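User: Second chain of the day. Same drill as before.
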Amino acid sequence: MKKEILIGFFTALIATFFGCYLFIEYFSNKGFYETISLIIQGNLQGKVLVLGAIANFFVFFIFLKKKQIYRAKGVLLETFLIAFLVLFLTIIGK
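Assistant: Same format as last time:
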């Protein structure tokens, strides 16, 4: 059971990073590293994480469709972790 939740958690983590990468790569006119620098300068890390976490919806519903409930719970756990991280980044940024 714990193994299945960890698999879901790490799958969602990879999906979040992949979603962030896709957002940065395809919706920015600048280079990848230059965009990362602009995100840090503009204190936009939370917003990019939220956009990257949209990929978790796809992973979550795939796990539900395959009736892998514990993996779906791992995805939810990682999504809540991202939400708290974004909240923390928002509070620190002010």
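Residues 29 and 52 are 18 Å apart (CA to CA).

User: Great, on to the next one.
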